[in-house]
Amino acid sequence: MTEEEVSCLGKTRFYTRRAAKRRANQIRREGGPKFRPYTCRYCGLEHLGHRPGHATYMRGGTPLQETPQ
Fold this sequence. Notes:
Blueprint: H1 3-7, H2 17-29, E1 35-39, E2 46-50
Antiparallel strand pairs: 1-2
């Protein structure tokens, strides 16, 4: 699995930061974790993610390796 697949594909994409913040607030009101919007370096749109150091789970599998260019 590539870094792009882990970081971008399969995540909800928001066209604006405002829309992402609105969804993050809605999740929080419904009892979910506190998310923050961030700009994806692959698609350029906004995704939601945990604050650094506050993930509620650990990803399984092996760490990603940088591919030589």
